[in-house]
């Protein structure tokens, strides 16, 4: 009887705490949850609720403390592990630990669509797109038709370069919600990527009224015009965006890219410098600036940015991953005796990363290019083969392998790679003609 009364009082106090959460009076809510635990230290809901308050207050460490208390009292409490994973991922930004915790929650019996969705987000962030697809498919299997899940799956497929499959999933969204902004928006961009420019523009114009932020519409127009090499028109659309959002990173970065393509490199560099002042922690702009310096053959300036990225970014950051190779290439191009060591380091880093991300074709490409540059062409051939197994639709890899095969004296195989590219996309003829080795190989008897 006494235990029942204790639970009843704890329940009443807990309800008061929940009431104060609804009113956003979080300190009062904490006071009542503390009173619950004074009444009954085993009242688990109060621990959950205190953790929730600390999440609402943005105090991740305090929230984790209470989830850990629950787990210490109930080691197989999967829900606590799941909530701890959410805090770890969304607040602490520790993706690897979040993946471990989500998998532990599944092992402990948690079967929730939002767990699988969050796990898909984690794998997406770590570029393990195959795993991301597995978990988003799990969401779709549980939930059935879901706009959010179809859009997420399409987004992952888009990153993988599987454009037709991405459009198929955006179309599934549009069958449910014909005016869905995200699906219409990204479908038009993918059509542009696929070279279906008029269809992309028609869809974009048709959905203009759906896009709440008009800068997004103008930005998308700029992207499609840029793809068509209508650079002046693209620049005009971007400048319209800039008038509305003058310091927006994405808008200014795109403007710099367009200036670069227009060969107005001084203007592009000025924008990159401005972006670095506004967003000093953003490494995309540093990498883009370094890439521009490489094109201008200013290898010393490029090296400064590549070194900065390598020193300051986490191991799985894509800019850092790319910088290992391009640093080595820059050193080679200036004739530095440090280039071989830089290439060896790049190869070592890619070998380690491939263990963690075995389905990321970019890693195999970068490793292959590094091996090729230092004369380890047979090993490079194997890496190109792996990359093509993962991304057979990525035509650039065939051209990279063709150059490697030319070095190996495999002229027949190299020519077959070049012809394969042209059969799939004749627009690559300009790229091939611009490369003396590839052009000579194509025209050889």
TrEMBL record:
<dbReference type="InterPro" id="IPR050498">
    <property type="entry name" value="Ycf3"/>
</dbReference>
<dbReference type="InterPro" id="IPR011990">
    <property type="entry name" value="TPR-like_helical_dom_sf"/>
</dbReference>
<feature type="repeat" description="TPR">
    <location>
        <begin position="44"/>
        <end position="77"/>
    </location>
</feature>
<dbReference type="Pfam" id="PF12895">
    <property type="entry name" value="ANAPC3"/>
</dbReference>
<dbReference type="Pfam" id="PF14559">
    <property type="entry name" value="TPR_19"/>
</dbReference>
<feature type="repeat" description="TPR">
    <location>
        <begin position="147"/>
        <end position="180"/>
    </location>
</feature>
<keyword id="KW-0802">TPR repeat</keyword>
<keyword id="KW-0677">Repeat</keyword>
<protein>
    <submittedName>
        <fullName>TPR repeat-containing protein</fullName>
    </submittedName>
</protein>
<dbReference type="InterPro" id="IPR019734">
    <property type="entry name" value="TPR_rpt"/>
</dbReference>
<feature type="repeat" description="TPR">
    <location>
        <begin position="249"/>
        <end position="282"/>
    </location>
</feature>
<feature type="repeat" description="TPR">
    <location>
        <begin position="361"/>
        <end position="394"/>
    </location>
</feature>
<dbReference type="Pfam" id="PF13181">
    <property type="entry name" value="TPR_8"/>
</dbReference>
<feature type="repeat" description="TPR">
    <location>
        <begin position="10"/>
        <end position="43"/>
    </location>
</feature>
<dbReference type="Pfam" id="PF13432">
    <property type="entry name" value="TPR_16"/>
</dbReference>
């Amino acid at each position: 009887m006494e235990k029942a009364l204790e639970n009843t009082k704890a329940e009443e106090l807990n309800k008061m705490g929940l009431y104060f959460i609804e009113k956003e009076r979080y300190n009062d809510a904490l006071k009542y949850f503390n009173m619950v635990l004074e009444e009954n230290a085993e009242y688990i809901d109060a621990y959950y609720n205190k953790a929730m308050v600390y999440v609402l207050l943005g105090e991740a460490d305090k929230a984790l403390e209470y989830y850990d208390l629950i787990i210490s009292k109930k080691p197989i409490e999967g829900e606590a592990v799941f909530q701890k994973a959410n805090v770890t991922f969304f607040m602490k930004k520790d993706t690897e630990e979040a993946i471990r915790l989500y998998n532990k929650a599944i092992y402990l019996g948690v079967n929730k669509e939002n767990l699988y969705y969050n796990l898909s987000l984690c794998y997406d962030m770590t570029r393990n797109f195959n795993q991301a697809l597995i978990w988003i498919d799990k969401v779709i299997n549980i939930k059935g038709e879901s706009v959010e899940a179809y859009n997420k799956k399409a987004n992952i497929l888009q990153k993988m370069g599987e454009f037709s499959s991405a459009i198929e999933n955006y179309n599934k969204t549009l069958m449910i919600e014909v005016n869905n902004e995200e699906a219409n928006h990204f479908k038009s961009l993918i059509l542009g990527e696929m070279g279906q420019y008029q269809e992309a523009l028609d869809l974009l114009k048709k959905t203009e009224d759906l896009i709440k932020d008009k800068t997004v519409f103008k930005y998308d127009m700029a992207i499609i015009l840029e793809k068509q090499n209508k650079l002046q028109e693209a620049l005009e659309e971007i400048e319209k965006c800039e008038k509305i959002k003058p310091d927006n990173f994405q808008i200014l970065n795109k403007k710099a890219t367009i200036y670069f393509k227009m060969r107005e490199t001084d203007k592009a560099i000025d924008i990159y410098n401005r972006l670095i002042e506004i967003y000093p922690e953003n490494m995309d702009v540093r990498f883009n600036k370094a890439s521009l310096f490489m094109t201008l053959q200013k290898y010393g300036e490029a090296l400064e940015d590549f070194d900065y990225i390598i020193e300051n970014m986490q191991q799985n950051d894509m800019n850092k991953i790319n910088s290992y190779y391009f640093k080595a290439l820059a050193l080679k191009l200036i004739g530095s005796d440090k280039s071989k060591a830089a290439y060896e380091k790049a190869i070592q880093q890619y070998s380690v990363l491939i263990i963690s991300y075995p389905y990321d074709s970019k890693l195999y490409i970068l490793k292959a290019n590094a091996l090729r540059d230092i004369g380890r062409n047979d090993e490079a051939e194997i890496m190109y083969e792996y990359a093509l197994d993962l991304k057979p639709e990525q035509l650039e890899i065939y051209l990279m392998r063709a150059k490697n095969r030319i070095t190996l004296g495999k002229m027949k195989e190299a020519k077959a790679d070049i012809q394969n590219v042209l059969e799939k996309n004749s627009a690559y003829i300009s790229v091939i003609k611009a490369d003396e080795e590839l052009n000579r190989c194509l025209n050889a008897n």
